[in-house]
Each structure stands twice: as structure tokens, then as C-alpha cells.
Design brief:
By secondary structure, the protein is α+β, with helices and mostly antiparallel strands. It is built from 13 helices and 6 strands. The strands form 2 sheets. Strands 4-3-6-5 form a 4-stranded antiparallel beta sheet, sandwiched between helices. Strands 1-2 form a two-stranded antiparallel ribbon. The chain is elongated.
């Protein structure tokens, strides 16, 4: 209900914007027929057509679209334009003849795609938990974590200072740390300009390659012994001083850590098997082909070429 109320709010805000001409404002004052969301010229958008359009938006993205007045406006505008073009095509008789069969092909494709999804989803589910557990037991060597490290860093930001000032200040901190490594943590708490330092004390745990900016990562993973401290590390954020706290070698993840991922994988695999079994069953049925229609097809598409080839062949002597 909360989402619905937000949607109605945003939609009403959109419709209340003073972007209409005087004529359009007059048209807006007249109520539309029941079930019609919008009209423009010869085009109209019904509630059912709008819902059909929304159903084609991936479910994970749907709420974001419907809670955006601008995106709802674009949906309506696109549907109105399609409706207007359709009306013009029908008025010109363009939907008759061979075009109606092309339209039927498009409609058939939409229908069968939706039917396949419905068919697969309506089949009994498998025991995905058991399947996931079996896969885990047989493939533990694939369930390894990536190598990672724990580090602590001190940042001198370049937001308020020149590059030279940043370098000078960072060098002062590094000199103090080299004299007494024990002051590192205190310097981080008192002077690090990383916004997260107040909450995490400058510590990043279980850092994997790809987690940090390249300059930081390259130096951090080059450190070899816990307690080792880097030199000055330049990045887009300023200058870092990094301490290696711990090296975390790869380990086998527990089933609980990968259970959700493996169950999703097994569910997808099961649905693919159901889909291909169904398609295979249909595709294995015996064909019946009309020889007359096949010959007629050859004549339709190649008869003209044969005539041209015949007309260019030299007469026999």
C-alpha cells in the first residue's frame, strides 16, 4: 500500500505540472473513459496496455520506474506515440495484406515467450537445498575464498590542500611512524582524513583484489609481512600510508556461506532442464510436409531467377 500511495503521488504531481497549452489544459479538464489513462490526438493508453508494458520491465527494476514521475511520463509518451502511429497505419490500410501475417508472427512470438516462462514456473520445484548440498560436497575445491588482506591506512586528503602541502604533511607522519611504528594507530585516529576513519579506525578487513583503487591495491598487496608499512602512496584521494595487518590465505567456504548462491544456481539449472525437455518433446513429434506447398515456395522465390538464367543461355546449334 505504501508503494501504491507513492506511485499515485508521483503520478499526480506529474499530471499537475503546468506544462500544458491552454487547449491541452481544457482537454485535461474533461474526464477520460473508464480504464483510459491518457490520450493524445488519435492515440490512447488503456490501463491494460500500460500494465502489459510494465510487466515487461524486469521485476527488480519495476518499483524504481513506477516511483519516478519522469519515467512514468516517458512510458506514457512512448505508448501514446505507438498508439498514434498504429492509428495512422490502420487508417491507411497498412495493416492489411501481407502485413497482417508479419503482425501475427510478432504476436505469436510474444505469446510463446510468455507461455514458456509460465510453463516453466508452473512446474513442481526440485529439492534445491539437497541439490546445492550435493554440489557443494562434490566441488569443495571450487568453493575457495579469494586471497585477501587486512590493512590499516592513514590518508592525507588533497581536497583542501595543494599536492605539495599534502606530500609534506604525509612525509611528516611517515617519519614519525618510521621512528616509532607504535604511533601509527594514534595518528590514524587523530589525523586521517578518510571519512570512515572515525568508525573503522582506518582498518579495512578481508580486502580482495579489485576492492580498492589500483594505486592503493598495488602497494597493499606488495607488502609481505604483517606490521610492514608502506611509503607514500599517491591516489586520486590524496596520499596514503598503509600498514599490512594480516594475510588471509584462501580457504574453503562453509556451505552456509554459499548456500543461497548454490540454491539459486540449481534452481536455474532445473528450470533450464524443464524448458529444454518441453521444447525437445514438441520438437520430436513427426513432421508432415506438403510437397505441393514446398514446390510452390521454390517457384515463388526462385522461378524468376530460373527465367532470367534461361533467357541468357545460348541457343543450341
Amino acid at each position: 500500500m505504501r508503494i501504491f500511495n507513492y506511485f499515485v503521488f508521483f503520478l499526480l504531481v506529474f499530471l499537475s505540472q503546468p506544462a500544458f497549452t491552454q487547449q491541452e489544459q481544457s482537454q485535461q479538464e474533461h474526464s477520460l473513459p473508464d480504464g483510459i489513462m491518457a490520450t493524445r490526438g488519435t492515440g490512447s493508453v488503456s490501463r491494460d496496455v500500460f500494465d502489459a508494458k510494465v510487466s515487461r520491465i524486469p521485476e527488480k527494476d519495476r518499483e524504481g520506474v513506477l516511483l519516478s514521475a519522469a519515467r512514468v511520463e516517458k512510458l506514457l509518451a512512448d505508448l501514446l506515440l505507438t498508439s498514434q502511429l498504429k492509428a495512422d497505419a490502420q487508417a491507411a490500410g497498412f495493416d492489411k495484406g501481407k502485413m497482417q501475417y508479419r503482425m501475427q508472427l510478432a504476436a505469436d512470438k510474444e505469446l510463446v515467450n510468455a507461455w514458456l516462462v509460465h510453463y516453466v514456473e508452473s512446474q513442481p520445484p526440485a529439492d534445491y537445498l539437497a541439490m546445492a548440498r550435493e554440489y557443494y560436497l562434490l566441488n569443495k575445491e571450487k568453493m575457495m575464498t579469494a586471497p585477501s588482506i587486512d590493512v590499516t591506512h592513514l590518508l592525507v586528503s588533497n581536497k583542501q590542500s595543494t599536492n605539495e602541502e599534502v606530500k609534506q604533511q604525509a612525509q611528516i607522519y611517515l617519519d614519525q611512524i618510521n621512528l616509532d611504528p607504535e604511533v601509527f594507530d594514534q595518528l590514524v585516529l587523530e589525523h586521517s582524513e578518510d571519512p570512515s576513519a572515525k568508525s573503522n579506525k582506518g582498518q579495512f578487513k578481508d580486502v580482495k583484489k579489485g576492492d580498492m583503487v589500483p594505486a592503493f591495491e598495488e602497494v597493499a598487496f606488495a607488502l609481505t609481512s604483517p606490521g610492514e608499512i608502506s611509503g607514500l602512496v599517491h591516489s586520486a584521494y590524496g596520499i596514503h600510508i598503509i600498514r599490512l595487518d594480516k594475510i588471509n590465505p584462501p580457504r574453503v567456504m562453509t556451505f552456509e556461506e554459499v548456500q543461497k548462491q548454490l540454491m539459486a544456481m540449481k534452481e536455474q539449472e532445473h528450470k533450464e532442464r524443464v524448458r529444454y525437455a518441453y521444447l525437445g518433446e514438441l520438437g520430436s513429434l513427426e513432421w508432415q510436409v506438403s510437397k505441393e506447398e514446398m514446390q510452390a515456395m521454390v517457384d515463388r522465390y526462385f522461378h524468376e531467377d530460373q527465367q532470367q538464367e534461361s533467357s541468357t543461355t545460348p541457343e543450341s546449334e
